[in-house]
Amino acid sequence: MMRSMILGACLLALGACQSARDLSQGERLSWSCANDNSFSLRTVGDSVEVYAGGETNRLAPVATESGRSYSNGAITLTEAGGRATLSGANGGPYENCRRRGGDWLPDLR
After folding, report:
1. Residue 11 phi/psi, 5° resolution?
2. N or C: which end of the chain has fewer CB within 10 A?
3. Domain holding 78: CATH number?
C-alpha cells in the first residue's frame, strides 16, 4: 500500500514537471490601463489572444524596432518597457497599460 502511494506521488510530480515546461503558454496575463480600462492576453504559439471589450482576437507578431508588437490588421498591441497600448479593440482606448500585480508570473524582462 505504501509503495503504491509513493509511486502515485512520483507520477504526479513528474506530470507536473512536464506540464510546467512552458509556463507562458496559455497563461492569461491581465493589464490595467488609463481611464479604468483593462484587457487580458495569453500566448498561443507565436501569437497572442487578446480579450478586450467582450471580444477575443488573435494577433500575429509583427516586426518592430523595440519591444513587441502584434496585429491582425485592425487591432494592434504594442509592448515596451513594461507598458502596453492596445489600439482598435472594442471598448478602447487602452493606453498607458501596466501588468496587474495579481499575475503569479513576474515579468522578468
Report:
1. -65, -40
2. N
3. 2.40.128
